[in-house]
Amino acid sequence: MFKFFESLRxxxxxxxxxxxxxNRRYRDALERAERALKLDLNENFTWSCLLIAGxxxxxxxxxxxxxxxxxxxxxxxxxxxxRQPDSTHLRHILEDIERYLDAIERHRAGQTAGxxx
Length: 117
Description:
mainly alpha
């Protein structure tokens, strides 16, 4: 019974984090995602929290931690897409993660180019 309530609580927190991310309230989204990650979560909640936290961190300028969290989310989702190759939902999420990781790489390349001059 306790596990059910813990899962419900996590679901509500992740929902709040997602809503904050959509509304560009990145600090609030990050705080909720981090709080949910501290709970004993199943894989679905974990990758969702990592995704929300990673995206929020990108917008807040913490690209190192963002990259780490986005890569972990991708590692969790990639095998699921292999098992469900027709899932456009999973494919879109992974494409979104790749866009953020590419933006991080472009950001770093821009910093390096600026240092060279």
